[in-house]
Records
---
Amino acid sequence: MSGMTVKSAVRVAQGMLKRVEFNSKTLGGTNTIFAAYLPDTAEYKKLPVVYWLSGLTCTDENFSQKAGAFQAACDNQVVLVMPDTSPRGDGVPDEDPHTYDFGVGAGFYLNATTEKYKTHYNMYDFIVKELPDFVEANFPVTNKRSISGHSMGGHGALTIGLKNPDKYTSVSAFAPICNPINVPWGQKAFKFYLGEDQQAWKQYDATELIKEYKGKDLHILCDCGTADNFLVGDVNQLQPTAFIDAALKAKINLSFRMQAGYDHSYYFMSTFIGEHLAHHARYLH
């Protein structure tokens, strides 16, 4: 396998979870780690891929260790690919002091344009182009893809899917940041990554994108817990109703389920991840 190092390999369910490191040109020449879960059936036939995008502070390992998704991946015959949430390593810029909601661990799945961050923080191009090219060249997968994610990663899944309907069969999200231009998380990140021009921010906002969406049905499925502290706390960082209203006005097919009593954690995600993978498999196979 070209230009990559397998950091670890462990058997789980009926397959293998591998953590892989390679050098990313998109992320400023830094080494990046992603995880790939391959059901055993990938040994004799190529399988489609569900890309999973994690949330603030996460690495590739949070989902692997907490989501309980591997049996569902086997049952639905899909490969899972789990990238990091930002570039890391020597020379990768950040703010001082570091905060959990910006910089390392918080790449927001965009291409930065400000001078300080534009060399390294290109997670959008990494997820859309470099990573799938690398995966398809080095693993037994087809070119059929779906995308999912949580919180910041849900924002990433929705925006990337809506901007690239030719590349993804279906999209899903858990507790996504639906309208980042209007909430503190997004306003902070977009200012540092994209500058002061708020018109430029809209290209990475799912609510703004779905207003103008003209592509195919992406079979969008979202779940959010009614007890999510980022929904019902001091600040509604998620804004699901803004996204739902925009989809309705644009007549875009959307299933957005509010799940009673669930919070923002992996307890919530582990409850419904099987349904999400089955949803994607329905359109990938």
---
Amino acid sequence: ETVPEPPLRSHPIPVYMSGPGVMWTHRPARLVETPQVDLPATVTLDEIEDDVQEIDLISDAAVHVEEGKGGVCWRAIDANDKVYSERFPIEVPRDSYSYRQEMIGLFYALKRALTRFPALEVIRCHCDNQAGIYKAQRPTYGPEEVTGSDMDVILAIRELVKSQEDKDITFYHVRGHTDEKLQPGEEASRIEVQNVECDRGAEECKDERPIPFQPLPGSKCMIRVANKWVTTRVDTAIQDITSTARIRLYLLERLQITEWELDDIDTEALGAARSVHNWSRTARTSKML
């Protein structure tokens, strides 16, 4: 069954054309409007006045892929260091990873902050996901930008920011896990302190029951070719689902590192450097790495 136009909140799914008019997919296609459900958020601190006009917004996620559990915590601080904090559990599919969940957390944090404090004029968003922060604030420049992996989350953030043109919303990277990284004599900044608290809050709520994933405003068809809607790059999506999560788990166990240390590795630069090597040299460097 087909529809003339896909619903605005239809979620991009990886598909493979196995014959005329036949589609095969890893996930069930849902061509109906999905009602939005309020997040089961818990307010843990509420010190900021309702008419505040400027805040720093910090968010973080705790993701346990093997357990299928995760949590998000976000905190807003005003000029007087008064804090508003919320946390909520999130659904973590087995083919997911921390990058996506952190960006979903940032999207909901910004959305809920705009609702909670309607008088806001300046919002500085901070997250320890450096790659996600970079993507969230750069403009859309081509098809690759809108059909890449996890771009539904990035586009949802961009769309939310665009809808608030009367507000000054900016994004900044904050060093994560400073409670484990500080050198002797070094002090954490006020934003880094709040980021550590977000990490703790996210961990505390990960065992609560989350609501099922809700399609985001960026979850819609991105490009139309020959009267056919293209929602994602099939090869990238299949690779992510079939191998990315497993490779990440192998590296975490093999190298005895944490997820944030793995995310700090510039894999795109490594891939670009190795792309000019022949097969034998690539095999040697893989063993060395």
---
Amino acid sequence: MLSSNNDRDAVSHQLPVWRRFTYGVGHVLNDLCASMWFSYLLVYYHFVISLPNTIAGVLLLIGQLVDAFSTPVIGYLCDKTNCVYGRRKIWHLTGTICVIVSFPFIYHVCFKCEDVPVAYLVLYYGCFIALFQFGWACTQISHLALIPDLTSDRNEQVGLNSIRYGFTVLANLAVSVSMWQLLDHVNSPNAHSSSDTDTPSNTTSGNTKINAKDKDLFWLVSVGTIGVGLIFSVIFHVGTKEPVMKKRADSSTGKKDDTVIYWHMWFKNPQFYLVAVIYMCTRLMVNVTQVYTPLYMLEVVDLDRVSVTDVFCH
């Protein structure tokens, strides 16, 4: 069951600028992690820790399947939740905690996993990936569902969505620029050529490809991603006040409220299928581009390590 205008104490007037800002940054942690997830997961598993291509793809698939299952379930439970902290914010907080405790391990070499079967690595990374994707879905769904609770004005809702997406773009750019700088200056021939220009071999002695020596680089970026995202999540929880839910007047009579849109009603709306197909195709194009462009540049075109960020930074 979805919320109606009678289900919430929503404001119809214009929200203050600071309320828009605190809401808009509530998804930054997810955006930063998603940029790392789609753009560099296969690169890390294939080039850094040398997992077989199939296994790396299986781990990515595990994450997407968990996300696909968690999203509708969390959406349903989010509507049913009754919490003094806020039915949306409690799920957002739960998701934030899950993301924080799981994401750094996705980009960290498995502890004491030398000479272990590949199945063990799938289990090890798969558990952290599943927890991360569950937390990611919790944060995403609760953050989006909070918009109609904050305001019933359609223009304000569109504005909040725009601010949210604006921070998504900035988060993607921040991750790309960070990776660009680190790949160009850490474990790179460029890091040595400026100081040892007198030695001819220095320009070629460094590896121009991403390799096992870059494991600390990826872990550093993942930890930095969590740190920055956590700051914005705190701003969201401190600055965003979720309106108190009102009880429906007919709850004691057992009668259905005609103003409420139940979940099964969506399947009778043709626009539901139209929007779903358009959104699915758009996300498919974006995700495939993010996931496979870095691999294409490194494997097929045989470009250097910095090329994996060029398409996202320029």
---
Amino acid sequence: MAVNVYNTNVTTENLSRHEILAWVNDSLHANFTKIEDLSSGAAYCQFMEILFPGRVKLKKVKFTTRLEHEYIGNFKVLQEAFDRAGVEKVIPVERLIKGRFQDNFEFVQWFKKFFDANFDGHEYDPVGQREGQDLGPNPGGKGPSAKQAIAAPPKQSQISRVAKPAAPKPAAAAPTTMQAPRPVAAPAAAAAPPAHKAVTNNGRANSNNVKAGAGGDSQEIQKLTSQINELRTTIDGLEKERDFYFNKLREIEMVCQGDEFEGNPLQPKVLEILYATEDGFDAPVTEDGAAAVGDEEEY
């Protein structure tokens, strides 16, 4: 008979959703990605088969279903297994099959405690018992050895985090003399590296080495072409942003130079900011060799 477990305020601390998913996937060699995916009831049926072999008719369980009426059928199989094992828990089927996170999370938290209280640590082959059927929303996924997972269920998840590459920061606009920005030249296409030939003692090229070198060159070309396309996309975005801010600064300059702004005490300060330079960033020089000034009419 089963050891019954009840949810009370003094029960052990609950696991996080990531830890719960890691436990389910490792134990059943499954591919669940969300707590809501457990609403099919298939995982619980196999867990009960692990705890009480022969009490669950796995052939009746729909492991890959997406239909609500088949979810109900799975939970019916589970409830029958509960009755045979003397489990007093009443399954809230109507709430679980709706796929809401909170309902399914509360139930799987209880089931984890129930499993820990009844599991004796024996080995089990979950994939073989369900005749190779996938379990979870990602068919064909692979995980660690199911026998090892059942023998020692993990206490904490081993979810790895992949850092996302940071988006390129836009270049700060600094049109010091308010001259129109020059277009940025796109990077030239990388020249294909020369093919490598291995010459034999009699002067003939080794065809096998030539083919191997050509294959490596082709991969290198594809890699460089992809990098060039990414750089071009980045440059296009930076040019658009640069032109946007340049036009804003140009409009400010036109207002400062207009008659309606003449004599305004803010005019000198605004123009000083517009034409200010920084170390390493000098004002462009005109054709006659003089530095560009702010009251030029040609840009």
